[in-house]
């Protein structure tokens, strides 16, 4: 049988990217809860707070982070890319300051938490989501 026979069509095909986005959002919230579990200095009050923080973190990474990377490009080149870790930590800390119930005590814990968040989020996405 042709492989296209079982492909979703119509409304199901249009709904697929939305469902994928919702699953990624849910996985990022779970990753944030895992970071809070693994790092006692990072605190997330509830799953709802994790959902909101994951959403704001995703929006900040999509909108603000590219601007920061561009503005700090000379420093990033001088540090051979390590300054990106500081940018990620600053974004993590900024979101924590914006959202009540999501607390990170300072920049160094935020940098470590951002690295851990990236690793856990990547692992969850690799295990749950399949490439199309």
Textual characterization of the structure:
Strands 1-2 form a two-stranded antiparallel sheet. The model has no long low-confidence stretch (mean pLDDT 91). With 132 residues, it is mainly alpha-helical. The chain contains five helices and two strands; from the N terminus they run H-E-H-H-H-E-H. The two termini are 19 Å apart.
Task: Name the descriptors.
5 helices, mainly alpha, 132 residues, 3% strand, globular
Pairing-aware structural class of the strands and helices? mainly alpha
Helix content: over 70%
Strand numbers in spatial order across the main sheet:
1-2
**Euclidean distance between termini CA atoms:** 19 Å
Note the quaternary state here. Answer: single chain
Number-wise, the strands total 2
Run of helices and strands: HEHHHEH
Number of helices: 5
Main β-sheet, in a few words?
2 strands, antiparallel
Q: Which outline best applies?
A: globular
Radius of gyration: 17 Å
Mean pLDDT: 91
Task: Give the low-pLDDT segments.
Answer: none
Strand content: under 5%
């Amino acid at each position: 049988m042709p492989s296209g026979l079982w492909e979703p069509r119509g409304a199901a095909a249009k709904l697929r990217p939305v469902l994928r986005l919702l699953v990624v959002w849910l996985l990022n919230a779970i990753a944030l809860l895992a970071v809070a579990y693994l790092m006692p200095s990072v605190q997330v009050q509830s799953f709802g707070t994790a959902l909101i923080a994951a959403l704001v973190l995703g929006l900040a990474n999509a909108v603000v982070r590219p601007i920061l990377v561009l503005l700090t490009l000379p420093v990033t080149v001088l540090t051979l890319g390590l300054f990106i870790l500081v940018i990620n930590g600053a974004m993590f800390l900024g979101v924590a300051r914006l959202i009540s119930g999501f607390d990170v005590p300072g920049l160094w814990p935020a940098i470590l938490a951002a690295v851990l968040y990236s690793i856990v989020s990547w692992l969850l996405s690799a295990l749950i989501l399949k490439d199309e």
